[in-house]
UniProtKB/TrEMBL annotation:
PROSITE patterns tied to this protein: ALDEHYDE_DEHYDR_CYS (PS00070), ALDEHYDE_DEHYDR_GLU (PS00687)
Annotated keywords: Oxidoreductase
Gene Ontology molecular function terms on file: oxidoreductase activity, acting on the aldehyde or oxo group of donors, NAD or NADP as acceptor
Species in which this protein is naturally found: Saccharopolyspora aridisoli
Catalytic-site annotation from UniProt: E248
Gene3D superfamilies, sorted: Aldehyde Dehydrogenase, Chain A, domain 1 (3.40.605.10), Aldehyde Dehydrogenase, Chain A, domain 2 (3.40.309.10)
Family membership noted in the UniProt record: Belongs to the aldehyde dehydrogenase family.
Protein name according to UniProt: Aldehyde dehydrogenase family protein
Length: 479
């Protein structure tokens, strides 16, 4: 297990103190890692700056960068089981998620962006100026700071890393302090793949390390995934420095269930979207708008399905719902459930920490509230845990306004047998992604990001190529 930082192609303990990372299934310390100092971050950034302009990296042909990314994907795939177990141990997600979704998705992204390296083109422009040729080219930005979250540590890191490297940038990665281990293991894979020293650097630590990276004058861009509150601070800091920034932030996704929807299919799809990774998904469906004539039926079936899920350690292959990632997050969920009870919502299942042999871990029972109103805090604020809310409605015309009555706009779900109704609602809802009659799926080719307080910018697809490049205009006198 790698526990040192990776800077300029070498493993280092840094110059500061250490911090622990815990196994959320039992609360035990897995490892102690170095807390990066401002000096450590500066060394990493300067290493990345030197690598960015070096012949070993800047002089590579696009096809040579592609081969490095393809090699990294192959190595990651060969070690998939190792990565999945480490991700589950450090983050808590069941092996069915880490091995079946997180690691394969990371492999897919490396290969997808390996393919883009040879296809990043500019345009020629017809100008109304005689004897002049005009063309554009896309160029890398420089050093990019990648600050990643604790809910899908490996996968979301690769969402940023793959396009950043495909476009020729150098990077400094700061993983979440709760879940740093797979980022360090990935650095080992990239080293084995042959990336030149300094192209990829990983510093570990908490908020101070992140602040040092955001504020460093040698960083050209920050890509951050995390809470809206922290994203606002990063956006303000980057704005003052006129530094490029991408933010993928919180969510409170509505699931709009029309009166004609197949309730049983809706239950299955929404259970997956609401409780995947113990609800620690920024696109999780947490607000279910259900026709009042069917709201009780839906709430009872949802509560029954949620309450029957197998709660346990992620390394147990029978587990359907693992622990939440940290004690801090568990305590936040407990607070919100208490708020929901005090607001008068009807607790249908769950509502407390797991007991017995799971008591030492960060386990919370899947929880469903019925009879929830629009103004309740549990319906408006991001909980980021296995807590679902059912909100009845009477008039279909109120659906889009109520779904949009939130500061967030990351994702939404629409369920209806009438495809016209479903698409009209999809157009009306203010969200970066809308899924119609399906649970959440992601693909490297489809752009991902939010509106309003859910962030700015997009990841995946061509959008990520644009996010890690800038356009240069070149004029040539032909006379």
């Amino acid at each position: 297990m790698r526990t040192d930082m990776y800077i300029n192609g070498k493993w280092t303990g840094g110059g500061g103190t250490t911090f622990p990372t815990h196994n959320p299934a039992n609360g035990e310390i897995i490892a102690e890692l170095p807390e990066a100092t401002a000096s450590d971050v500066d060394t990493a950034v300067e290493s990345a700056r030197a690598a960015f302009g070096s012949p070993e990296w800047a002089g590579l042909l696009p096809s040579q960068r592609a081969r490095l990314l393809f090699k990294a994907a192959d190595l990651l795939e060969e070690r998939a089981a190792e990565f999945a177990r480490l991700e589950t141990t450090d983050q808590g997600q069941p092996l069915a998620i880490s091995a079946g979704f997180s690691v394969p998705n990371a492999v897919e992204h490396l290969r997808y962006y390996a393919g883009w390296t040879t296809k990043i083109t500019g345009v020629t422009t017809p100008l109304s100026v005689p004897d002049v040729d005009h063309r554009t080219r896309r160029e890398p930005l420089g050093v990019c700071g990648l600050i990643t979250p604790w809910n899908f540590p490996l996968m979301i890191l690769v969402w940023k890393l793959a396009p950043a490297l495909a476009t020729g940038n150098a990077v400094v990665v700061k993983p979440a302090e709760q879940t740093p281990l797979t980022a360090l293991l990935l650095a080992e894979v990239l080293d084995q793949a042959g990336f030149p020293p300094g192209v990829v650097n990983v510093v570990t630590g908490g908020p101070e390390a992140g602040k040092a990276l955001v504020r460093h004058p040698g960083v050209a861009k920050i890509s951050f995934t995390g809470s809206t509150a922290v994203g606002r601070e990063i956006g303000a800091e980057a704005g003052r420095a006129l530094k490029k920034v991408s933010l993928e932030l919180g969510g409170k996704a509505p699931s709009i269930i029309a009166a004609d929807a197949d309730i049983d299919a809706v239950i299955e799809g929404n259970l997956m979207s609401g409780l995947l990774n113990s609800g620690q998904v920024c696109a999780a469906a947490t607000r279910f708008y259900v026709d009042s004539s069917r709201a009780d039926e839906f709430a009872e079936k949802m509560a029954g399905a949620a309450g029957s899920m197998q709660l346990g350690p992620g390394l147990d292959e029978s587990t359907q719902l693992g622990p939440v990632a940290s004690l801090e997050q568990l305590e936040q969920i407990v607070r919100y459930v208490d708020i929901g009870k005090s607001e008068g919502a009807q607790l249908l299942t769950g509502g407390s920490r797991a007991e017995g042999h799971l008591a030492d871990g960060y386990f919370f029972q899947p929880t469903v509230f019925g009879g929830v109103s629009q103004d309740m805090r549990i319906a408006r604020e991001e909980i980021f845990g296995p807590v679902l809310t059912v909100l009845p409605y009477d008039d279909p015309e109120e659906l889009a306004p109520r779904a949009n009555d939130t500061e967030y706009g990351l994702a939404a779900y629409v369920w209806s047998r009438d495809i016209g109704t479903a698409n009209r609602l999809a157009h009306q809802v203010k969200a970066g992604t809308v899924w119609i009659n399906m649970p959440p799926l992601l693909d490297a080719g489809a752009p991902w990001g939010g509106m309003k307080s859910s962030g700015s910018g997009r990841e995946m697809g061509w959008d990520a190529i644009e996010a890690f490049t800038e356009v240069k205009s070149i004029w040539t006198n032909l006379a």
